[in-house]
Specification:
The complex is a heterodimer. By secondary structure, chain A is an alpha/beta fold. Chain A contains 18 helices and 22 strands. Chain B is α/β, with parallel strands linked by helices. The longest helix of chain B is centred in the middle third of the chain and has 16 residues, at about 355-370. The chains are: A alpha/beta, B alpha/beta. Strand 8 of chain A pairs parallel with strand 16 of chain B.
Chain lengths: ~425, ~575
């Protein structure tokens, strides 16, 4: 059986045109997907059963779901400062349960954006975000800028579906309709496909953005001969290309959000785009990583008023990045229990945070073994969303789509596990109050 | 389900012509009935004011724009906080509340129905995801068609059957209730950073005019027999002198007759479109010609879009106006173009009484309501949260009821305002019956939901009822406006589908409301021609596949579907 129009549960492109062949409840072929997406859908070694251990250096023993869930609930209910982290590689339906669980335990809920596009959200608090849906850019953009991102490796179909090669109504010649410029500290494979590559000194993107803003505002005279390693002449040339665009789009990634300047870089980039709109039409959009990392920001915002890093210890949502993000709390050694779901703290957090996680009980809910498993005391395997479970995901441009189920498995969904933990937490808290 | 008897109610139910009669209201299985049995739960209203549950025909409560506002404005989410309880989730926000506060606060004021005024089809799933989490109230939404390529192509090719087939398909795809038209053509022009300048300025690359878009959608709307008329946000919104465009837009639909007992054109938040002057320097109110027009023509209705001083988050599918606002005010700017369909923008701003521009805007809204004779023609709204958040409705109600209250407000407003408005000279004061019209009955009539049990208390109507702690006989609203406002802010009882959901302004139950949408059968050649065009556009221009585009049933768990047929 071939299932068409399948959504891909890998990156923020959320491609929805896959064709997956299923035989005897097994995925046997994946068409149209990139290699990474196809690999995820085809599946690989997964955690077979719930496991627990007291000593993080000891061996896991297999336990029942009930035992793992009850023990997890006990840890969370008795914790004074639980961290609920991850919430990216899953569907919105489970994220809603996560926000509810956080209310019940008075903890902090934080999503992988914390170490990814979190600074972009801060930039948006400062300046807003002039953006659009990806089809708007494929139909119209004649100038495409990639800044600190490398879609060839990280979002493999982005260029063909949305940004560079895609033919659109106005941009009807695809690649030949567009001028492509890459700003990056290294010459990536994306840069190799560009018309122009601008090498920026590491950590000096902010200055380059400021120089471009000055040139766009006809104040090139204040710009020094070299900025961030880029000759002024080159900056003037690129600024003119951007200014001359009928429709310009800037896609940006970790190179801008996680380098020196962080959210100030985003503030500056958004300001540049806003100012360019006095000339042509311009938009900017973050290249979100996980297929539904955007969805968590959406769900968390409509349920708590805040996009991420929400502390419920006061009974009301409280958000203050720098104080309430995972790593702020771990490094201050406030966290006394961690619940990691649909994200991998072990692989992406700095050593000091990992050290704290090594000292507190860690619960992991995930289909797959990953570095977080190494720190976990309880591991609860669940369904792979978008392969074994239907549900909602938000593409990087915040267009939501419904993911399909391709095969049936016996594992519970994240949502079912969370429902049971919530019920148990209520029982424990109810008994103690 | 249980029975209920509300005794000694002073009832204002304009749809049934009930004007302050002392009576009992019986409820059974969530509906109003003739009489209740002895086992009914009895609420003694003690002569207090009873209205049908409030209905808001134009508000922005859910979807991508609202969430953009929340994400951009964490400082707003720090307002209005209320901790979770055993029953309720936490409340956050003032202009952009979280989903829970959105429903609770309407219910606390005695409102039981609210219609979201702008759903982009491509992002409709998001709107419904939020609808599914807004507690208590019934909801519906208006779908954006005014800059849609399918719409403009069908109009240019004079194919009204195809247009109707697409509007029906778009309403189905978005699970929408009605046809919203925002700055017709302007959203497409904004795709390249431009706008249309007036009704006869062709949309770039599409060669249709805003006039043609309005006219065709209005005609098709009636042929489709939709419960609501087209719902128009005029061109040139936010520009001094725009009242002329507004009047000319009215005229486009003057000869269109509706078979239904309602307007054939609803023009929204007219406060923002009744502006005189050529620039900000000679900016003035032009509410009088607008009200004159309404007084001479009964084919159209409007809503106020009243301004409330303080913080607002402006959000609209009118992309270019938001860029202009943000540049003018040096405010944060979020833009949200939607491929092939429309634009949108979100900008926070603050309305200051000492700014005469804002003073004039404040006056225009009230003037429109007070100069228009027929209370059914002007709905009370703030275009939440554009003119200010809906939690201020009780204050606006008192301003309509009391000249003294208006004078109190005027004393805070920049003096220049009064040279350019006529508000100071208006002595009209609305009564309890008028307010019932302007906050529930007319909203239900304009939306076309009276026959579906909304906006009235007749037998068979939904038992959505508000009891306020006011004895109309003993209360002079023209003087005791503080008391009246306090009572409207916190209903004594809000009853939704026969269940007490709020008591003295506190939530007591959290049922989930229904979502209203319209399914229209278009059974003619237009459907096939439309499908060919649609498939071509999905294949070539949309960034999602057609099979994944339409809102699935999973996102509308409690639908109320009204079926109509194209003739």
């Amino acid at each position: 059986m071939i299932i068409k129009d399948v959504l891909c549960p890998f990156c923020g492109c959320l491609c929805d045109d896959l064709a997956v062949e299923v035989e005897d409840n097994k995925v046997v072929d994946v068409k149209h997907a990139c290699k990474i997406g196809a690999s995820k859908i085809k599946g690989h070694d997964r955690i077979k059963a719930p496991m627990m251990r007291d000593d993080k250096n000891g061996e896991f023993r297999e336990v029942s779901y009930d035992e793992a869930i009850n023990e997890s609930a006990k840890i969370l209910a008795n914790s004074k400062r639980p961290l609920l982290y991850g919430w990216a590689s899953g569907v919105c339906e489970m994220m809603k349960k996560g926000v509810l669980l956080n209310e019940e335990v008075g903890g902090i809920i934080d999503n992988t954006a914390s170490v990814c596009h979190g600074p972009s959200a801060l930039g948006v608090h400062e300046k807003g975000l002039p953006t659009g849906t990806l089809g708007q850019f494929s139909n119209r953009a004649d100038v495409v800028v990639f800044w600190g991102c490398n879609p060839v490796q990280a979002h493999p179909r982005h260029m063909s579906r949305y940004s560079v090669f895609a033919k659109g109504f106005f941009a009807n010649k695809g690649r030949r309709s567009r001028k492509v410029v890459v700003f990056d500290v290294r010459k990536t494979d994306t840069a190799n496909l560009a018309d122009d590559y601008i090498q920026v000194n590491p950590g000096e993107d902010y200055m380059v953005l400021s120089a471009l803003r000055a040139i766009v505002a006809d104040k090139a005279d204040v710009v020094p001969e070299t900025v961030g390693g880029v000759p002024k002449e080159k900056l003037v040339e690129v600024a003119e290309v951007m200014k001359g665009a009928k429709f310009g789009i800037v896609y940006f990634g970790m190179g801008l959000t996680q380098s020196r300047g962080k959210y100030k870089n985003i503030d500056n980039a958004v300001s540049l785009i806003t100012e360019l709109n006095a000339h042509g039409k311009h938009s900017i959009i973050p290249m979100r990583g996980h297929y539904n990392v955007t969805g968590f920001g959406q769900v968390c915002a409509w349920e708590t008023g805040f996009v991420n890093a929400v502390d419920m210890s006061r009974g009301i949502p409280y958000y203050n990045p720098g104080e309430t993000c995972s790593n702020d709390l771990l490094m201050r050694e406030e966290i006394d229990a961690a619940f990691v779901i649909a994200g991998d703290a072990g692989a992406h957090f700095p050593a000091q945070s990992i050290a704290r996680m090594g000292k507190v009980p860690v619960i992991q809910v995930d289909p797959f073994h990953n570095p977080t498993t190494e720190m976990a005391n309880i591991v609860i395997p669940t369904k792979v969303s978008g392969v074994e479970l239907e549900g909602t995901a938000y593409r990087m441009d915040a267009v939501s789509l419904r993911m399909r189920k391709l095969v049936d498995v016996d594992f519970p969904s994240d949502e079912e596990v969370l429902d049971k933990i919530i019920a148990k937490v209520r029982e424990i808290k109810g008994a103690s109050s | 389900m249980s029975e209920m008897l509300i005794k000694n109610a002073t009832v204002y139910d304009p749809i049934n012509g009930v004007n302050g009669d002392l009576m009992d209201i019986a409820v059974k299985d969530g509906k109003i009935v003739d009489s209740a049995s002895g086992s009914a739960q009895v609420i003694d209203a003690g002569g207090r004011l009873v209205y049908p549950g409030g209905v808001d025909a134009h508000t922005h409560i859910a979807g991508s724009k609202v969430n953009v506002g929340r994400i951009m404005r964490p400082e707003d989410s720090r307002l209005g906080l209320k901790p979770k309880t055993k029953l309720t989730r936490p409340y956050t926000g003032y202009t952009v509340p979280n989903v829970y506060a959105m429903g609770y606060r309407y219910a606390e004021m005695g409102y039981t129905t609210a219609f979201e005024a702008a759903i982009p089809i491509l992002k409709a799933r998001h709107t419904h995801e939020e609808f599914e989490e807004i507690p208590i109230i019934d909801k519906g939404g208006l779908t954006l068609f005014g800059s849609n390529w399918m719409v403009m192509d069908a109009i240019r090719e004079n194919d009204q059957e195809r247009l109707a087939a697409y509007v029906a398909w778009g309403l189905l795809a978005s699970r929408g209730w009605g046809v919203k038209v925002v700055n017709p053509g302007g959203g497409e022009a904004w795709g390249f950073g431009k706008n249309v300048s007036g009704l006869d300025d062709p949309v770039p690359n599409f060669e249709v005019t805003p006039r043609q878009i309005i006219r065709n959608l209005a005609e098709v709307n009636e042929k489709m027999d939709l419960p609501h008329s087209i719902h128009l946000h005029c061109n040139n919104l936010g520009k001094p002198g725009n009242y002329e465009t507004t009047l000319a837009s009215f005229d486009i639909c003057k000869d269109i007759k509706s078979k239904r007992d309602r307007q054939s054109l609803h023009v929204t938040h007219v406060q923002f479109n009744a502006w005189g002057g050529n620039h900000w320097g000679d900016f003035e109110s032009k509410s009088e010609p607008i009200a004159d027009y309404l007084n001479q023509n009964d084919f159209l209705t409007i809503d106020m879009g009243q301004l409330v001083f303080g913080s607002a988050t402006t959000m609209t599918a009118d992309g270019p106006v938001q860029y202009a606002n943000a540049r003018l005010l040096k405010a944060r700017w979020s833009n949200g173009d939607v491929e092939l369909e429309d634009a949108s923008g979100v900008t926070p701003l603050e309305y200051h009484p000492q700014s005469y521009i804002h003073g004039i805007m404040w006056a225009i809204g009230l003037e429109l309501a007070l100069l228009t004779k027929d209370p059914w023609q002007v709905l009370m709204t703030t275009d939440h949260p554009n003119g200010g958040p809906y939690v201020n409705y009780p204050m606006v109600m008192t301003m309509l009821m009391s000249q003294k209250r208006r004078e109190q407000e005027m004393s805070k407003i920049a003096e220049k305002t009064f040279d350019r408005t006529c508000i100071a000279g208006i002595d009209r004061e609305l009564d309890w019956y008028d307010i019932a019209i302007k906050t529930r009955a007319a909203h239900a009539k304009v939306l076309g939901i009276v026959e579906h049990g909304k906006g009235h208390l007749g037998v068979g109507a939904d038992a959505d009822i508000a009891i306020y702690d006011i004895k109309p006989d003993e209360t002079d609203a023209t003087v005791e406006f503080d008391k009246v406002e306090a009572a409207f802010r916190r209903s004594a009882y809000t009853i939704k589908a026969g269940e007490v959901v709020a008591r003295d302004g506190e939530i007591t139950a959290v049922p989930m409301g229904r979502t209203y949408w319209v399914k229209t059968k278009v059974d003619n050649g237009g459907y096939d021609r439309m499908m060919d065009d649609l498939k071509m556009k999905f294949k070539n221009y949309y960034s999602v596949n057609m099979a994944n585009y339409m809102v699935q049933d999973e996102y509308v768990e409690r639908p109320y579907v009204v079926e109509t047929e194209y003739k």
